[in-house]
Design a protein that fits this description.
Layout: H1 2-6, E1 13-15, E2 34-36, H2 89-97
Parallel strand pairs: 1-2
Length: 107
């Protein structure tokens, strides 16, 4: 707000437009801005852009787009491993009976 005004803006308009459009506390906002609260906005996030004299729009407080460095895309699910070739039941049972460690016995 302060930097926009210092940079030459005549007015700053804040449009609360996420979820229920009741996210900002009006009493905590800068006293010189114009605040557009609540639902029922035909232009949604862009409500106020049609007012006379609007020359720029800044979007702030939005999460990064998925797939950008700030918010990488979720990892693709791992492909399931190929099934092992079928082994005869007796050979598989014998393999499962072998000890995993052939070192000295633990007491």
């Amino acid at each position: 707000m302060k930097r926009a005004l210092a940079g030459g803006a005549d007015e700053v308009i804040v449009n609360d437009s996420h979820d229920g459009m009741r996210n900002l506390v009006p009493d905590e906002l800068h006293r010189e801005l114009r605040f557009i609260p609540g639902a029922g906005k035909p232009l949604g996030m862009m409500q106020g852009v049609d007012l006379p004299g609007i020359g720029a729009v800044f979007y702030t407080g939005y999460p990064a787009k998925a797939g950008t460095p700030a918010k990488p895309a979720p990892a693709a699910p791992a492909k399931p491993a190929a099934p092992a070739p079928a082994a005869p039941r007796a050979a598989l049972f014998a393999a499962l009976q072998k000890p995993l460690h052939a070192g000295p016995a633990m007491t």
